[in-house]
Design a protein that fits this description.
This protein is mostly beta strands and 340 residues long. The strands form four sheets. It has a 17-stranded antiparallel β-sheet that branches. About 10% of the residues have low confidence.
Length: 340
């Protein structure tokens, strides 16, 4: 499993009095460190949870006052830090925060018992100082859940009611959209980056991502790569593109986090530059390199990452030349077969 460390650095309350029903928020300051070897996605709406002593679950909301951005992509060796706010009921007791990635392939399931509200850990702000971010719709989910539990009892919800939503930035550009039911996200979920490009496309089931595709882009906004994931591991065909964003540069097949199948490298013209095979993450089988004119230049034979015979070489016309001894440290062709 992939290694992740979750830390709760702080917890404090924000009270918002008013003429109507007063509202109380609990703000949790989390950091997530990726100690694994694969890039991971954090979805704060599904991995971060808050429950009271009776088992009631509170939904996260987005506030303009919260700092950082916990929900994002985390590369290996890096960490995200951000605050997650929950709209809670006044008088809630036995609050406990949960962070659970175990069902999507990460080795972390942590919990913290939270301090009860007191004057020393509560700020009181008016509506003009505490505003829900324009891109937030999670308050609607909180009231939807409260209505459901009030009508049926928290363990007797017999009908999942859907809430389609969109998340907008302060400049009114689309950042996220999906569908929520009583247990969280369900079905298609999409996120866009600051350039307005699709960054994540995921399929949710019962509040958890089943599979998703991560999209990366060059500074010129051209598509750089698309990487499919299933339950926390790369699975499917990863495609990398040249900076034009149209021609494929490389494709890499994955199966449960390991390279498996026929890999290909392309010339900018679209012609095949190299073809090689992998099995369970290792080079296994034939590997061949071609010139831009399509003529075979070099071929290898691998078994479990080891070359089993001398490297075959060919002249400009594709005729066999003298074989060479395999020298991985100085072989420029071999280096192209390594994961990138």
């Amino acid at each position: 499993m992939n290694e992740v460390k979750a830390t709760l650095a702080d917890a404090h309350y924000i009270a918002q009095p008013g003429d109507g029903e007063p509202r109380l928020f609990l703000v949790l300051d989390f950091s997530i460190e990726n100690r694994g070897r694969e890039t991971m996605m954090v979805y704060e709406s599904s991995e971060v949870r808050l429950r009271d002593g009776k088992g009631y679950a509170f939904e996260p909301v987005r506030l303009q006052k919260t700092k950082g951005d916990l929900g994002n992509k985390v590369i290996p060796g890096d960490r995200n830090r951000g605050e997650v706010a929950f709209l809670i009921s006044d008088g809630a007791k036995g609050l406990r925060a949960l962070f659970d990635f175990s069902e999507v392939g990460y080795k972390v399931a942590a919990g913290w018992t939270l301090p009860e509200r007191s004057p020393s850990n509560t700020a009181s702000l008016g509506a003009e100082q505490l505003q829900e971010a324009p891109r937030s719709v999670y308050k609607d989910v909180y009231y939807l859940r409260r209505k459901l539990t009030s009508a049926f009892g928290k363990n007797e919800i017999s009908e999942a009611r859907e809430l389609a939503y969109r998340v907008l930035s302060t400049s009114n550009t689309l950042l996220e959209k999906g569908t929520l039911v009583d247990h969280g996200n369900e079905g298609l979920f999409e996120q866009w980056n600051a350039m307005g490009k699709l960054a994540v496309s995921a399929e949710y089931r019962k509040g958890r991502p089943e599979k998703w595709v991560l999209y990366d882009y060059y500074p010129n906004a051209a598509l750089k790569s698309s990487v499919p994931w299933v339950k926390g591991a790369r699975h499917g065909l990863e495609i990398q593109y040249f900076e034009t964003g149209t021609n494929k540069m490389k494709w890499v097949p994955w199966a449960k986090g390991l390279r498996a199948g026929e890999n290909k490298l392309f010339w900018p013209s679209g012609k095949v530059r190299a073809v090689w095979n992998t099995r369970e993450g290792r080079l296994h089988g034939a590997a061949a390199f071609y010139g831009e004119n399509g003529v075979l230049q070099r071929s290898y034979a691998f078994k479990d990452d080891k070359v089993t015979e001398p490297v075959k070489t060919f002249d400009a016309q594709g005729k066999a030349a003298a074989p060479e001894r395999f020298q991985p440290e100085s072989d420029p062709y071999y280096k192209l077969l390594a994961p990138q």
